[in-house]
Amino acid sequence: MSIGLIAVIALLTYGSRALALVLMPDPPARIQAVLDRIPAPLFAALAATSLIEEGTFVEASTLTAALFAFAASPTRSLLWVLVAGVAGYAVGALIFT
């Protein structure tokens, strides 16, 4: 499997999801009310489990990405959190490799 093929697959996967987030309309008020009731600690727990692999923390660049995404979370915009996470990973890769 070539790097180009992996890049194309990643672009199709994440690009389609990002476009859906940007272009899709807001959910109806009733669905939004349900989503607003889901506690933030639940999302935090889901994110925390992805930072530990086989009892140890993941690499430093991944932790940096999580820190940047967390810092962008007050915007309440999934797009900005995603952009901050990618930027954090790039910064982490530059610093720690």
Can you offer a commentary on this structure?
With 97 residues, the chain is mostly helical. It folds into two domains: 1-26; 38-96, no CATH class. The protein is 74% helix and 4% strand. The chain is built from five helices and two strands, in the order αααββαα. The protein has helices at residues 3-23, 29-37, 40-49, 60-72, 78-96, and strands spanning 52-53, 56-57. Strands 1-2 form a two-stranded antiparallel sheet. Strand 1 and strand 2 form a beta hairpin. Helix 4 (60-72) packs antiparallel against helix 5. The longest helix has 21 residues, at 3-23. The protein is globular, with a radius of gyration of 16 Å. The relative contact order is 0.10. The model has no long low-confidence stretch (mean pLDDT 84).
Helix content: over 70%
Straight-line N-to-C gap: 24 Å
Main sheet attributes: strand count, strand direction, barrel closure: 2 strands, antiparallel
Number of helices: 5
Number of strands: 2
Report the average pLDDT across residues: 84
Structural class by SSE content: mainly alpha
Number of domains: 2
Spatial arrangement of strands, main beta sheet: 1-2
Poorly predicted tracts of residues: none
The helix-strand sequence is: HHHEEHH
Could you tell me the strand content as a percent range? Answer: under 5%
Rg over CA atoms? 16 Å
